[in-house]
Amino acid sequence: MYSILTNREREVYELLIRNHSTREIARLLGISDKTVRNHISNVMLKLGVKGRAQAVVELLRLEELDLEQDD
């Protein structure tokens, strides 16, 4: 199945829906805060939505993300 998300975008949003801050996501992935914000913005542009929350809702609707916890 084709995904609209890159692997890194998926990692960022999976951490975002688990209530991690931008700074925490950056630290966990070993990237800068700015890069995290860029990934979030890129996904919002792809989806044509105006905020992180709308992006999450749309990604869940498209089954690009799953709320099930792996841990």
From TrEMBL:
InterPro entries: Sig_transdc_resp-reg_C-effctor, Tscrpt_reg_LuxR_C, WH-like_DNA-bd_sf. Keywords: DNA-binding, Transcription, Transcription regulation. Pfam families: GerE (PF00196). Residues 1-63 form the HTH luxR-type domain. This is Helix-turn-helix transcriptional regulator. It comes from Amedibacillus dolichus.
